[in-house]
Write a structure and sequence with these properties.
Blueprint: E1 4-7, E2 13-26, E3 29-34, E4 44-46, H1 54-66, E5 70-80, E6 84-93, E7 110-113, H2 121-140, H3 154-165, H4 171-183, E8 187-194, E9 201-206
Parallel strand pairs: 2-6
Antiparallel strand pairs: 1-2, 2-3, 2-4, 3-7, 5-6, 8-9
């Protein structure tokens, strides 16, 4: 592939490649953008522009291929300035906006339930590390809010936590947790409600 370089302080032109692991939660399942048939092909690799910050390059590329902004989390950078560097990123994707459809993200790639993807040892290790990092981010940062819509219900947020952490959470206790975040000013409850089959659901968003 064509490569770009980032100038290091040592004045060595360093080849940079980026591998992306896009994750989303849909219908309570954690999905990965994956291409079957070729080892390692679930990682979309590309070179950033020269002198561009890696996080900015990942955000730009993810937005282009997935028709919307996402949230990058750096997993690791491997290699050396002399031989080239590869940055591996987890990329968190919000659900599609109702009424809008996106095209095929990348030729040959599709969203698949992570539990049903056969991975070789190398890819399995990378994905396992990515899941561990994502679980930490879900528990200790705002990553969970990056995988729901900008306006979300308690149930939608709980489904994200359950899918990533691979546990069942008590709905009542989780609702209390959300209420605490509202009291702390992290979240705001919206005056509108979302219609459901039973009763309208309360909506929240990050402050």
């Amino acid at each position: 592939m064509n490569v770009a370089t980032l100038q290091e302080p040592s004045q060595v032109d360093t080849t940079i490649g980026i591998k992306l692991l896009p994750f989303r939660v849909r219908s309570g399942r954690l999905e990965l953008l994956h291409s079957p048939g070729q080892p390692g092909s679930m990682l979309a690799a590309f070179p950033p522009d020269p002198y561009q910050e890696l996080d900015e390059a990942v955000a730009r590329f993810g937005s282009e291929i997935l028709s919307g902004a996402g949230h990058p989390i750096q997993l690791r950078v491997t290699g050396s300035p002399s031989r080239g560097l590869t940055g591996v990123y987890v990329y968190l994707v919000r659900p599609s906006t109702p009424g809008l459809t996106s095209g095929q993200p990348v030729a040959g790639f599709s969203w698949r339930d992570l539990r049903r993807i056969p991975l070789d040892a190398e890819d399995g290790g990378i994905v396992s590390d990515a899941l561990d990092a994502l679980a930490r981010q879900i528990e200790h940062s705002d990553a969970g809010f990056r995988m729901v819509g900008e306006e979300f219900t308690v149930s939608e947020l709980r489904q994200v936590h359950e899918a990533v952490l691979r546990v069942s959470l008590d709905p009542s206790n989780f609702r209390k947790r959300v209420c605490r975040l509202v009291g702390e000013g992290v979240l705001s409850e919206l005056p509108t409600r979302r219609p459901t089959a039973t009763r309208p659901a309360r909506l929240y968003r990050m402050v």
